[in-house]
Write a structure and sequence with these properties.
Blueprint (H helix, E strand, L loop, with lengths): L7 E4 L5 H12 L3 E4 L4 H11 L2 E2 L8 H7 L6 E4 L13 H29 L2 E6 L12 H21 L4 E6 L7 H4 L2 H7 L7 H14 L3 E2 L5 H10 L1 H19 L1
Parallel strand pairs: 1-2, 1-4, 2-3, 4-5, 5-6, 6-7
Helix pairs in contact: 1-2, 1-8, 4-5, 7-10, 9-10
Length: 254
């Protein structure tokens, strides 16, 4: 992998959790890091910790300000901000709309703003924090699962469309990670995610290993590969297994 020293890196949703771990790792590699978060105080705190630049605000609309803060050039963009919306198909439409806006459209808007410059110079790196829910699914979280599938599909589309023009794309798909988002998943997360949960720093380590190998799909939980294969090869068997977990969860909720 090329050196990251003095490269301009933007990490959204970096006020804590995976985003903060990514910001710390990029900064440790010598990159100039923009730390974005909707919570300005958290963005400022992480930026101070890593020697970066805080650019708080909505992740959908910070590319121009982040580029200015970096002197005009963004080399790596980490679309990490996410909304962990739970609920079924009956979740209010505003919940579905918010999940779609943060988990998918923020990625689309960032790519739309960044691609002209990246394609002109023949290089750029787009990192999408997707989640294993984008490859598989998550019980009790229809808006999250569906929109994370969308995030994965968009990252895949970017890669197949522009890789011959110098764009490198990575989709990070962890299962449980010990963050505030995991804590908010409640009993469903306790059943499915908590037993194998890893630290945010483990996700950053997996990403850097994947970047060194130039891999698109980054699996901090290697077992997800087998689950993903089972979903593709024997979908009815896989769905039956997931339904078993659903019923087990429903029994704990009674």
């Amino acid at each position: 992998m090329e050196t990251l020293k003095d490269k301009g890196v933007v990490v959204t949703g970096a006020g804590g959790g995976i985003g903060a771990a990514l910001a710390r790792r990029f900064a440790a590699e010598g990159a100039r890091v923009v730390v974005n978060d909707l919570d300005g105080a958290k963005a400022e705190a992480v930026a101070a910790d890593v020697g970066g630049i805080a650019v708080p605000g909505d992740a959908s609309a910070i590319v121009e300000r982040a580029a200015e803060a970096l002197g005009g050039t963004v080399d790596v963009y980490c679309a990490n901000a996410g909304l962990g919306s739970g609920g079924t198909e009956a979740a209010p439409e505003e919940v579905w709309a918010a999940a779609w806006d943060v988990n998918v459209m923020a990625h689309v808007r960032a790519a739309h703003a960044l691609l002209p410059g990246w394609l002109e110079r023949g290089s750029g790196r787009f990192v999408s924090t997707v989640s294993a829910a984008g490859l598989l699914t998550m019980i009790g979280a229809a808006p999250y699962s569906v929109t994370k599938h969308g995030a994965y599909a968009f990252a895949e589309w970017l890669s197949l469309t522009y890789r011959h023009r110098g764009l490198k794309v990575h989709a990070i798909c962890p299962q449980g990670v010990r963050t505030d988002m995991l804590a908010a998943t409640g009993s469903a997360g306790d059943l499915v995610l908590t037993p194998t949960a890893i630290e945010p720093e483990d996700v950053a380590t997996a990403l850097f290993a994947g970047m060194a190998d130039d891999r698109f799909l980054i699996l901090p939980h290697p077992e997800v590969a087998a689950f993903y294969e089972a979903r593709a090869v024997t979908p009815d068997k896989w769905l039956a297994g997931m339904n078993h977990i659903q019923r087990k969860w429903e029994a704990t909720e009674k």
